[in-house]
Amino acid sequence: MSLKLELPAALLAVLAILFTLYLPSILHPPHLTGSQDLLHAAEIIELPGAFGPESLVFDPNGEGPYTGVADGRVLKWQQSSRSWVDFAFTSSQRGDCVRPFAPEIEHVCGRPLGLRFDQKTGDLYIADAYLGLQVVGPEGGLATPVATEAEGEPFYFTNDMDIDDEEDVIYFTDTSTRFRRRQFGLSIFGEDKTGRLMKYEKSSKQVRVLVRGLAFANGVALSKDGSFVLVAETSSCKILRYWLKGPNAGKLDNFADLPGYPDNIRRNEKGEFWVALHAKKGPVASWFLLNPWAGKLLLYSPLSFKQLHILLAGGKPHATVIKLSNGGRILEILEDSEGKNLRYVSEVEERDGKLWIGSVMMPFIGIYSLH
User: Fold this and answer.
1) How far, in Å, are 27, 129, 204, 313 from residue 345 at the CA level?
2) pLDDT tens digit string along 88-106?
């Protein structure tokens, strides 16, 4: 790196370190008008020996939930014994996969993120950040590859998906073609716009890229009538809509602007969408995102993963989930603004009057009763 870059990067690093040290006491995440601070009442279910339950899904028989964790396993919750059991894993190279959280060997152990069941076959599809789109049968075990590239370009950060059971099609995201999952902060602050929304056809086993140039392509959800698919663009704090049917088929438009960084999107039985916000958008992170030159200089700074994350999240752990209408209108905002029970939400699954809540940064899940 040249001296011209070294000096500004060093200065920004010093400022950013000061922010991460003192930010929690002087700059809390912003208050959201109309939000209800209720999520602190959620029941907590620990994951002994595991970390980072990103996605939560129930099988066609209503059993579960199942969740992927940081050491490459997919776990299943057994309600009768109130315990977790191993269900599947995405890599056969598990000799060193003994720690709950070891980012430096995620590419070896695998890192399952988005999970979805095929409602007709009972197969579980897994978006593994490093190993691509995978599938495992109803009995679990070692998952097998489904797809690892699209149009000649390998997946670099497979993230989330949804399945159209009528059309036998899977829509899924590759967050970046430059940065791996463990480098997510660099992707966000580095103005990376290489994310892709893709379509996998089960019959032909072909993958087609539907949208390129996304800023941290993340969560995916189909509309109830199958006319469009949503994709979360985390860096821009937007939910985008890609039309699959009708006069706008093939077009991309803006579905919702959000007050924070969206992760996964999940549709409920009414056709509404729950969006998990990893964190609310604060002024410091917003400034870096609005000034790409400063964000790119952070790539050369000595900031650790933890420091970059604190910078993004506004210095204070919290939890925020948003319900959107089928047209993109905000219907409800629920929070644990003090992070008393829940923090850094990655997914919300509504089922039988309860919200099942995952977090890629925590060793537990939450259950919040809506009634």
Assistant:
1) 20, 18, 36, 12
2) 999 999 999 999 998 899 9
